[in-house]
Automatic annotation (TrEMBL):
Its main location: secreted. Residues 1-188 form the Peptidase S1 domain. It comes from Dreissena polymorpha (Zebra mussel). Belongs to the peptidase S1 family. CLIP subfamily. The keyword Heme does not apply. The keyword Hydrolase applies. It is found in: Secreted. GO terms for biological process: proteolysis. InterPro entries: Peptidase_S1_PA, Peptidase_S1_PA_chymotrypsin, Peptidase_S1A, Serine_Proteases_S1, Trypsin_dom, TRYPSIN_SER. This is Peptidase S1 domain-containing protein. One of its GO terms (cellular component) is extracellular space. GO terms for molecular function: serine-type endopeptidase activity.
Length: 190
């Protein structure tokens, strides 16, 4: 994934494959994956940063979201995940982004559920789902955001799960505040 020539960022797109005039297509200057990333068993350190070749133009369609180093979404709080992924397990991706309201699942509960299929859930992971709602294939890399102190805060990055929206297996997300110092260090160095 670190070969920037194979990737570009498309910001402000709503309907995939249709030009609306709101899109910004930018090449990447750099891709930085976490140096300790592992694919198995739960994709630990599943986080990467991209540096755009030029600054994005902020607009109604392109904006930023906060990350807060000291905020952890409380268990059972309501948050939102979004993406262009499958609408049902085994389905096909969507042309437009969809969102799902999900609840934060206590880490201990999530770890117990995944332990039954021999998947370890680390403290660097946050779990979330609501029966029948979850991120799905194709949503990986998308946000898990919670409303906190009057603004949206990104608390997670969609990483994986067992199936989609299965009540016994919540989706798991990379816990953004766990990597705050790494994010800060990478940004300052680049």
């Amino acid at each position: 994934m670190s070969d920037k020539t194979n990737w570009r960022a498309v910001l402000g797109e709503h309907v995939q494959g249709r030009e609306d005039g709101t899109e910004q297509k930018l090449t990447l200057d750099k891709i930085v994956t976490h140096p300790n990333y592992t694919l198995e068993p739960t994709m630990l350190y599943d986080i990467a940063l991209v540096k755009l070749s030029r600054p994005a133009h902020m607009s109604e369609y392109v904006n930023t979201i906060r990350i807060e180093p000291n905020y952890t979404a409380p268990d059972h709080s309501h948050c939102v995940t979004a993406g262009w992924g499958d609408l049902v397990e085994g389905g096909v991706g969507s042309e437009i982004p969809h969102h799902a309201s999900v609840q934060i699942v206590p880490t201990s509960v999530c770890a117990d559920l995944y332990n039954s299929i021999h998947v370890a859930i680390a403290d660097s992971v946050i779990c979330a789902s609501t029966e029948g709602r979850d991120s799905c294939q194709g949503d990986s890399g998308g946000p898990l955001s919670c409303f906190h102190d009057g603004h949206w805060t990104q608390v997670g990055v969609s990483s994986g799960g067992y199936g989609s929206a299965r009540p016994q297996y919540p989706g798991f997300y990379t816990r953004v505040n766990h990597y705050y110092e790494w994010i800060k260090t990478v940004i300052e160095a680049n």
